[in-house]
Amino acid sequence: MADNESGITLWRFVGCTMLYLALFLLVALPQWMIMCLYAKGIMAFTITCFFISFGLLVIIHMVEALKYARPFNFIAIIICYELLTLGAASFLLEWNLICAIIIMCVALLALVIVLVISVFLIWIGFYGNPFKLAVVGAMGFVLAYCIEVMDIVQGWYFWQDVAVSVFIASVIILLISHLLITYENFEFLVKDDALLIATVLYIGYLLILIAGRISAFYISENAAYFNTTTTEGYDDVDDDDDDDDKKRKITVKSFE
Length: 256
Fold this sequence. Notes:
The chain is mainly α. It has helices at 10-38, 43-62, 65-68, 72-88, 97-124, 130-148, 159-184, 193-228, 231-236, 239-245.
């Protein structure tokens, strides 16, 4: 494989990206497990970290020195990474450790599937315009939001299930499109771009992890709903009660 303009081969670049991503995951997973076991009453702190991390991501994206000027880029990414990791723990705190590990593994499996699909599309060379694919993924986020608020217009018990499914599909589409765009622009990439791409993949993993945690809540709610509701009883209830039954609200207690 020939070098690009920065003197790095494709396989070396991929190897660096996977190394960074593996380090991100290996450091994050033990933190989440420990916090699941011992962290109590710190939800406000972790949620604050989550929002601060996205603000820092915007700053990193806007300031070129924080992306390519060493050692500032590594310092900025490490701080942002740790804030993201602590923030994502908000969705795993005070929950069963085994269930949390299962969600982590499922999210990791989804990320591996994304990587395999991307490699396959690159290998066969049949993937169209990745920028159009990215637009589809971005529109999926808008659609997920619209579905989430549909309870205001028309009450239906499963709106949130559909919204989370669309959200996960959108994350997967965006990750695939990002990898395809990266491949098409490989000639212009430098070695430090591997750190940025690994960060994007890690953020994608976190989004799938969070969606998986919310899905676990909805699955348990659906199981209880189908076990306690009959067709006759559902048809006979009052309209106001019917609307309340069709809506599910996630609170802090929902994550215990």
